[in-house]
Automatic annotation (TrEMBL):
GO MF: alpha-L-arabinofuranosidase activity; xylan 1,4-beta-xylosidase activity
Organism: Sesamum alatum
GO biological process, one term: arabinan catabolic process
Keyword Glycoprotein tagged: yes
Span of domain Fibronectin type III-like: 690-759
Name assigned to this protein: Beta-xylosidase/alpha-L-arabinofuranosidase 2
Length: 766
């Protein structure tokens, strides 16, 4: 989700203004059907909790005038006082904690901050599916607590589940990385954490989540090419095996209450005006139980920037007839009436849209009267920023931090032997940078410098005025480095380098950061730890190759407790277990590959190298899944089949002819699967967590991925401890590929399964 262009700098860049503006002390939430103050409301069926949602919604919609209906097609919804319905602001955000982006949420003296978890890309690096859901549950509890005192809404336009296709994308930090399976698992789990109620009522919602931005959205502003009118040219194959799976999972597995359509066009059609994508797929195929909302001012962009329709009223009709329910912005409030008057839009379509919107609000309890008498009515300021929630933010950051290089004798540092630590770099003592984008005011901050100083004596030099590092202060940094027992350099980026509406051109460390690192390393007498704080990957091949740089850590944007988590890893209080959720490419990739080329697969004829670990065939700085530990974990394959037969019905063409693949259809796939059993042993001296990845290299039919992730599991083992991991492999789900037309096919022949250094050959035949 993104604000209107005019609003963007206010919302994202000048956040400090938003925090400091005076806010009236509001202590009452917005809700309808307040029978204590208006007993006459009990005569309305829409206020009767004993009736089902469909009946209540039909009653409500039947009582509204057309103008009143139009008031509920936009995010700043207009109340209907004669029916006891207040104004409501749909737009709140909760990407990695309750956010102040969006007018639906405010921080005041009553609730000055909320728990700020790591930016999503670092949470994804934990590869801990249960943790994704736990974070969502904590965030929704804090959101409900803020709603109860009038400081937040109930509808949160999070998570961002787009695939991190290109390393330059400024919003890659908001995502779970480049792998469709990880993105799918993250999105569905976070949504369940946000939405599921503690009483187990599947028809009701704690808060309503929203999966965005649908679809093939991952260009913001690159070399002047803007998301507002970008036309993503996507093959059906790439659409169905890369861009769509996270959204499908969000709806089917997460039961998300909303999907947001994006600014861009896909193959010449605006996503918010494409009936095939909205009505056909989201509602028709996936059966969304909820509402479809535009990205902010998408309809303005469709008309004024893309010039896709001749009149505003045609834009209204196109979007609503395509399946749109809610407009972030005011376009529908301005032009829907005239669209109806001109015969372009039938009021029954409006009825359908507001029915979806009202049904969501009823599932949230908005029409059930006083929230203090409902399930979450006892939540309040005491439930925000609890010690347990703040500790969880630290734990998530620790678990996500990725150790990318570690020379023997470098990490972990011992506070007993390191008596002086030089801490250098533009991100070494930052606060706000640690949060990333779509942030809220945190409970408190622990900077990297503060975290490190808690364990040993430190000397600090920023080394650069800011992350752009126009002129590195090399001499001052070298002076403290040469005198210290060890050096920690905290480098990287911030929102001035990569963010919404700002894609990168270069993927190297900004400005003279590389010079600073190299010069400091030269004069250091002990370990040199390079800490990279960033959303996207960086070409740090120079540091990987420099023997004087003894360790490299990537810490994402690690959230409010980031500094404590970094120190926990550096001093060995925590054994790192994070793994990269995206490929780190060399700068030559950014120089060669056009960011707007949406093709995932390589093209040998043009030299196009493809994208992500699934298809890219060129050199990398670090690879998807990379990550070291202070321990060593061994894998042992205990059980896996070498041959699996796929049953075919009588007369199937592949019984008599050679086939390279068969359709993954229900009667073929039913109960067709097997288990893989593995034993994992920690042969190191330190307890720690370990992620076990199961990859497959399928037969090279239909331009299949060279390798793709089938599953991942995380386990914790004591020194010399053993654990068992079982993967259930569904042949049609896991061993199938998408063909050129978007159909799912079971690839026949040899599938090579990978777990760590193990490889196991599996033959699939009819």
């Amino acid at each position: 989700m993104a604000p209107a262009k005019i609003f963007l700098s206010f919302c994202i860049l000048c956040v400090s203004l938003l925090i400091s503006r005076p806010v009236s002390a509001q202590t009452k939430p917005a809700f309808a059907c307040d029978m204590s103050s208006n007993p006459g409301l009990k005569n309305f069926s829409f206020c009767d909790q004993s009736l089902d949602v469909k009946t209540r919604v039909a009653d409500l919609v039947g009582r509204l005038t057309l103008q009143e209906k139009i008031g509920w097609l936009v995010n700043t919804a207009k109340g209907v006082s004669r029916l006891g319905i207040p104004d409501y602001q749909w737009w709140s955000e909760a990407l990695h904690g309750v956010s102040y982006v969006g007018p639906g949420t405010k921080f005041t003296g009553l609730v000055p901050g909320a728990t700020s978890f790591p930016q999503v890309i670092l949470t994804a690096a934990t590869f801990n599916e249960s943790l994704f859901q736990i974070i969502g549950k904590v965030v929704s509890t804090e959101a409900r607590a803020m709603y109860n005192v009038g400081l937040a809404g109930l509808t949160f336009w999070s998570p961002n589940i787009n695939v991190f296709r290109d390393p330059r994308w400024g919003r890659g930090q908001e995502t779970a990385g480049e792998d469709p399976l990880l993105s799918s698992k993250y999105g569905a789990a976070y949504v369940r954490g946000l939405q599921e109620r503690d009483d187990g009522d599947k028809d009701r919602l704690k808060v309503a989540a929203c999966c965005k931005h649908y679809t093939a959205y991952d260009v913001d502003n690159w070399k002047g090419i803007q998301r507002y009118n970008f036309n993503a040219l996507v093959t059906q194959q790439d659409m169905d095996d890369t861009f769509q799976p996270p959204f499908k999972s969000c709806v089917l597995d997460g039961n998300v209450a909303s999907v947001m359509c994006s600014y861009n066009q896909v193959n010449g059609k605006p996503t918010c005006g494409d009936p095939d994508l909205l009505y056909g797929v989201i509602r028709g195929q996936w059966k969304l139980n909820g509402y479809i909302v535009t990205d902010c001012d998408s309809l303005n962009e469709m008309f004024y920037t893309q010039k896709y329709t001749k009149t505003p009223e045609e834009t209204v009709a196109l979007a609503m007839n395509s399946g749109l329910d809610l407009n972030c912005g005011d376009f529908l409030s301005k032009f829907t009436q005239t669209a109806v008057d001109r015969g372009l839009l039938n009021e029954t379509v409006i009825n359908g849209a507001i029915s979806n919107n009202f049904a969501t609000m009823m599932r949230l309890g908005f029409f059930d009267g006083d929230p203090s008498k409902q399930l979450y009515g006892n939540l309040g300021p005491k439930d925000v920023c609890t010690p347990a929630n703040q500790e969880l933010a630290r734990e998530v950051a620790r678990e996500g931090i990725v150790l990318l290089k570690n020379t023997e004798g470098s990490l972990p540092l011992s506070p007993k032997t390191i008596k002086s630590l030089a801490v250098i770099g533009p991100n070494a003592n930052v606060t706000h940078t640690m949060l990333g984008s779509y942030e809220g005011t945190p409970c408190k901050y622990t900077t990297p410098l503060q975290g490190l100083t808690a364990s040993t004596a430190t000397v600090y030099q920023p080394g650069c005025a800011d992350v752009s590092c126009g002129a590195a202060q090399v001499d001052a940094a070298k002076k403290i480095a040469a005198a210290a027992d060890a050096v920690v350099l905290v480098m990287g980026s911030d929102q001035s380098i990569e963010r919404e509406s700002l894609d990168r051109v270069d993927i190297t460390l900004p400005g003279q950061q590389q010079l600073l690192v190299t010069e400091v390393a030269k004069v250091s007498k002990g370990p040199v730890i390079l800490v990279i704080m960033s959303g996207g990957g960086m070409d740090v091949q120079f540091a990987k190759d420099d023997p004087k740089v003894t360790s490299i850590l990537w810490v994402g944007f690690p959230g409010e407790a980031g500094g404590a988590a970094i120190a926990d890893v550096i001093f060995g209080y925590y054994n790192p277990s994070g793994r990269l959720p995206m490929t780190w490419y060399p700068q030559s990739y950014a120089d060669k590959v056009n960011m707007t080329d949406m093709h995932m697969r390589p093209n040998p004829d043009t030299g196009y190298p493809g994208r992500t670990y699934r298809f890219y065939k060129g050199p990398t700085v670090f690879s998807f899944g990379d990550g070291l530990s202070y321990s060593t974990f061994n894998h042992n394959l205990v059980r896996a089949p070498k041959l699996v037969s796929v049953p075919l019905e009588e007369g199937h063409v592949c019984r008599s002819s050679m086939c390279s693949s068969i359709d993954a259809v229900e009667h073929t796939c039913k109960n067709l699967g097997f288990d893989i059993h593995l034993r994992v042993k920690n042969v190191g001296q330190m307890s720690g967590s370990h992620t076990v990845f199961l990859f497959s290299s399928p037969p090279q039919v239909h331009n299949a991925p060279q390798k793709h992730l089938l599953g991942f599991q995380k386990l914790h083992l004591e020194p010399q401890g053993e654990g068992w991991v079982r993967f259930n492999v569904d042949v049609c789900k896991h061993l199938s590929v998408v063909d050129e037309k978007g159909n799912r096919k079971v690839a026949l022949g040899e599938h090579l399964l990978h777990v760590g250094d193990l490889k196991h050959s599996l033959n699939l035949r009819v």
